[in-house]
Design a protein that fits this description.
heterodimer, A: 113 residues, mainly beta, seven-stranded mixed β-sheet, four-stranded antiparallel β-sheet, 11 strands, 56% strand, globular, B: 112 residues, six-stranded mixed β-sheet, 52% strand
Chain lengths: 113, 112
């Protein structure tokens, strides 16, 4: 299956700052990537669908101006958490769909202090 | 967002025992997937199911796609300590580039 590289693995930032998370497809050209958020002891909840060369599609309740998604190439999608607050602290995971199914990145643990 | 009904939420079993967990949905799915997630990591695919009635094995793991297309189960035989983790079912309604819907997970603990 495809290999997905997600960086950083963890990040601590101050409240009010912005954080960028990268999701790279190392061996597959992904026109679509998905971003999920997972709170402790909970399931993965879809935040948005990232489309290469066009605007992302956000799930209901997800603020598009707060969670900026850019999918400028077939191998890179980025999620920027703008003006982060403690309630944005979570585990963020990207995913792509390829022939064998869905592959996930290793996740980014964001802690906002 | 929507979620699948996954049970049980957690299980404590003795090493060597068999484990069974299942997922149900009110909607028909055309794909069922089972993932395992270790702490601080992304989910890793265990088994993918694409046809109603399909029964697929991966080592000690066996999963089935329900005939009604609204349910799936995962069995783990002869559990070992490294089976510890959270198991998620996931489904997809449509074909094409559509996201997965996840169950709430089953937290498995294996007592040696």
């Amino acid at each position: 299956g495809a290999v997905v590289s997600q960086h950083p693995s963890w990040v601590i930032c101050k409240s009010g700052t912005s954080v960028k998370i990268e999701c790279r497809s190392l061996d597959f050209q992904a026109t679509t990537m998905f971003w999920y958020r997972q709170f402790p002891k909970q399931s993965l909840m879809l935040m948005a669908t990232s489309n290469e060369g066009s605007k992302a599609t956000y799930e209901q309740g997800v603020e598009k101006d707060k969670f900026l998604i850019n999918h400028a190439s077939l191998t890179l999608s980025t999620l920027t958490v703008t003006s982060a607050h403690p309630e944005d602290s979570s585990f963020y995971i990207c995913s792509l769909q390829e022939f064998y199914g869905y592959t996930f990145g290793s996740g980014t643990r964001l802690t906002v202090v | 967002g929507q979620q699948l009904n996954q049970s049980p939420q957690s299980m404590f079993i003795q090493e060597g025992e068999d484990v069974s967990m299942n997922c149900t949905s009110s909607s028909i799915f055309n794909t069922w997937l089972w993932y395992k997630q270790d702490p601080g990591e992304g989910p890793v695919l265990l088994i993918a199911l694409y046809k109603a009635g399909e029964l697929t094995s991966n080592g000690r793991l066996t999963a089935q796609f329900g005939i009604t297309r609204k349910d799936s189960f995962l069995n783990i035989s002869a559990s070992i300590p490294s089976d510890v983790g959270i198991y998620f079912c996931a489904g997809r309604y449509n074909s094409g580039n559509t996201p997965l819907v996840f169950g709430k997970g089953t937290r498995l603990s294996v007592i040696a």
